[in-house]
Design a protein that fits this description.
Distance between the termini: 38 Å
Number of strands: 39
CATH class of the domain at 1-61 and 80-150: Mainly Beta
CATH architecture of the domain at 1-61 and 80-150: Beta Complex
CATH topology of the domain at 1-61 and 80-150: Ferric Hydroxamate Uptake Protein, Chain A, domain 1
Largest sheet: 22 strands, antiparallel, barrel
């Protein structure tokens, strides 16, 4: 598929118009249209009877949309560079396009815009199942393109007010507002939102010794008071038919202070002793990002595009622990952990047509990533000099580190439309990087990676498509693994060690998909089989000293992950209930790596046996009301985490959300949501070892703990003007 010079504003406009002319009857009947390149187009009239509020609401009515939005199979996991933590900008990213373009950002990508775009600004939605040299993202199982209305001047304001009530009786307000529109060649989407993230988590832990006797119990109450605020802007200007530029910006404040009260009872003394500990955690976090792109289309249809991102993520966590004895409070822990993470990325590429059926894109990307980190740990000791910088306690650890990576990536992508039913996309990436660490440790290392990828698609019939991909991927390192950092899930461990020798996880990823779309838009079934051959798997390794048993994140060696998934989405049209939509997904998986402590073959860290989910949605015919339920759960067992002196086994209940929504007074939409009315317990069994490692020591205690944050009820009022 090759587009004429700036028929690409928005992308696929020419294609959609041709489809509309050839299938005007279908559009009049509000039916989706499938073109020769397997693109399915849903006009705005298709959604009119549902009275959607946003682009996100429109997508929820499309069968099989979860395959496009979340991928078809075993995406992510070890060795993957997907998601907002991917390496640089890359060819991937979220599979969401707005007016045919990918929003240049990480925290501010297309998926985050869907709830901000009013439905009355959408002209049509495309589900792109093929590959093309004209796409701003490559290699996705499917790509979603939200095409907005074209008008000389248009604008719309959408707003939402909500109130959340939590199980402890706390009531917190929230809201969002967005302005979308265009004026001549200028397009804009500006939004602001704040959402409550209050949580009152109640937990209880029972510790038993190796002989089965009761050691102690812990009752825990944790209150987190967070109200993130996000301000974003997406601006575009078309200078000429051949030149267009975009600027995207986002600012987010997500402070999350919390207080953790623990009531401990020691059964190993006589008489039994109860104590109270209080953790006061002041967690401050700010993130900002500016991204943009400029694109020029030449008279022969070739394109030159440059993109850039500059962002900064800053967090400062201060934890102080007090032992409470009546009115007396004694501080025994001070832990201050500061991290500033910065990225500066620029990417430029040139796309050209080799023939009517072949395209070539090539370019280069430069990325600079920097982490500045400090950690101060102070403890209450019987001796030693105290310091105000360590909260008046004795300094134990004073770590300071800077990690910087300079990375260059050259790439070439060849797209070949073999015939009307087959396409092949081939990618070759060569990557060079240097990682330098200074501070407590000074070290510089160089890395080189060659990353090929092949994506083959075959339309066996207009309804049945086969997709097969083979890819070499390299995951982005967490620079926090290089340095000492705070740990938040173990009361007996204050900080974890860093490892300056850690290397990137790599993987060869094999995926095979078969998708069938039922006639008359009545549903989609997608099956996926995947196998990931892993190298340099990251998990806990032994970095002990002669005096201290110690572990840090490091590379274990080779591993593997494999499994299968099936997604289904069905309208009950056969029972004369076309407005009932059922969705489901089942994924089973297994994995393998050699444990560095025990020498046994085991699953990857917290990679369980799989998951399943189902959803139900009913849009009533006679009234402007819809309701539904979503249920997500994992298969029990297998979510183990091995450390040098402990083994943890995790489990949790299903996530459930039910809703009722209606259009009512004042043209407003009223929505009621109930989340986790069953309380959704989250549990962990931790087995600790002493006098050695989990291989050489003996069991000292077993901690069995569970907690829940209770149910949440929300009322949302939405409107546009």
């Amino acid at each position: 598929m090759r587009l004429a010079p700036y028929s690409r504003k928005p992308l696929f406009t020419a294609l959609a118009l041709c489809a509309a002319l050839q299938s005007s009857a279908l559009f009049a009947q509000s039916e989706p249209v499938t073109t020769n390149d397997s693109t399915v187009t849903y006009p705005a009239s298709y959604f009119a009877e549902f009275e959607p509020f946003s682009a996100n609401d429109m997508l929820d009515r499309i069968p099989g949309i979860t395959v496009a939005r979340q991928g078809a199979g075993g995406g992510g996991g070890p060795g993957s560079s997907s998601g907002s933590n991917r390496r640089g900008l890359g060819l991937g990213g979220e599979q969401i396009l707005i007016n045919g373009r990918r929003i240049t950002g990480k925290g501010n990508e297309g998926n985050s815009q869907l709830s901000r775009i009013p439905a009355d600004q959408v002209q049509y939605i495309e589900i792109i199942r093929g590959t093309s040299g004209d796409l701003d993202v490559r290699g996705g199982s499917q790509v979603i393109n939200i095409v907005l209305l074209e008008a000389e001047s248009r604008s719309s304001i959408a707003y939402e007010l909500n109130t959340d009530q939590y199980h402890d009786g706390e009531i917190k307000p929230g809201g969002k507002i967005s302005l979308t529109g265009s004026r001549g060649a200028f397009e804009y989407l500006v939004s602001a939102e704040t959402e409550p993230r209050w949580e009152y988590r109640k937990g209880f832990e029972v510790s038993t010794l190796a002989d089965g006797s009761l050691n102690n119990t812990v009752r825990r109450d944790t209150v987190t008071d967070s109200q993130p605020f996000v301000l974003s802007a997406n601006l575009g200007y078309q200078f000429t038919d051949q030149d267009i530029a975009h600027l995207n910006a986002q600012f987010e404040n997500s402070d999350a202070p919390f207080v953790d009260d623990r009531f401990l009872t020691d059964y190993q003394v006589n008489p039994i002793v109860s104590t109270v500990e209080e953790d006061i955690n002041d967690n401050n976090s700010e993130f900002w990002e500016i991204g943009g792109d400029y694109e020029h289309t030449f008279s022969n249809g070739n394109r030159w595009k440059t993109q850039f991102i500059v962002n900064e993520d800053e967090s400062d966590s201060l934890r102080e622990r007090f032992v409470v004895d009546g009115s007396k409070r004694t501080k025994d822990l001070f832990l201050d952990n500061y991290n500033r993470y910065r990225e500066r990325i620029i990417r430029t590429s040139y796309s050209m047509g080799l023939s009517n059926t072949q395209d070539l894109e090539f370019g280069i990307e430069r990325a600079q990533t920097i982490l500045d980190s400090t950690l101060q740990l102070g403890l209450l000791t019987n001796s030693g000099t105290t310091s105000a910088r360590f909260g008046g306690l004795t300094p134990i650890t004073d770590a300071d580190a800077t990690v910087e990576e300079i990375r260059y990536e050259t790439f070439a992508v060849h797209n070949w439309q073999i015939n009307d039913r087959m396409s092949l996309e081939s990618t070759l990436i060569f990557e060079q990087s240097e990682i330098a660490q200074s501070g407590d440790v000074s070290k510089t290392r160089d890395f080189n990676f060659v990353r090929p990828k092949v994506d083959y698609r075959f339309d066996l019939t207009p309804s049945l498509q086969l997709r097969a991909t083979i890819e070499k991927d390299v995951a982005q390192l967490s620079f926090n693994d290089f340095t000492a950092n705070a740990v938040g899930n173990d009361d007996e461990q204050n900080a974890v060690a860093g490892n300056p020798d850690i290397r990137q996880e790599q993987s060869w990823r094999y995926d095979l998909n078969l998708e069938y779309r039922f006639n008359n838009d009545n549903g989609v079934v997608n099956t996926n089989v995947f196998y990931h051959d892993l190298e340099d798997v990251i998990d806990r390794i032994d970095v002990s000293t002669p005096d201290t048993i110690l572990a840090a994140n490091g590379n274990l060696g080779d591993g593997e992950r494999f499994g299968a998934a099936i997604d289904g989405s069905f309208r009950l049209a056969g029972w004369n209930l076309p407005n009932i939509l059922l969705t489901s997904r089942v994924q089973v998986e297994d994995s393998s790596v050699t444990d560095p402590f025990l020498g046994i073959d085991r699953r990857l860290r917290q990679q369980g046996k799989g998951s399943y989910r189902f959803g139900f949605r009913h849009d009533l015919d006679s009234r402007p009301i819809n309701y539904g339920i979503n249920y997500n759960d994992s298969f029990e067992g297998g979510r183990l985490a091995y450390d040098i002196d402990k083994i943890e086994d995790y489990d949790q209940d299903a996530f459930i959300m039910a809703f009722v929504e209606l259009q009512g007074w004042g043209g407003l939409t009223y929505r009621f949501e109930a989340t986790n009315v069953h309380e959704q317990y989250r549990c962990r069994v931790r087995t600790r070892y002493e006098n050695g490692t989990i291989a050489t020591g003996t069991i000292s205690e077993i901690e069995d703990s569970c907690s829940h944050a209770g149910e949440k009820y929300a009322i949302k009022i939405r409107g546009t003007f």
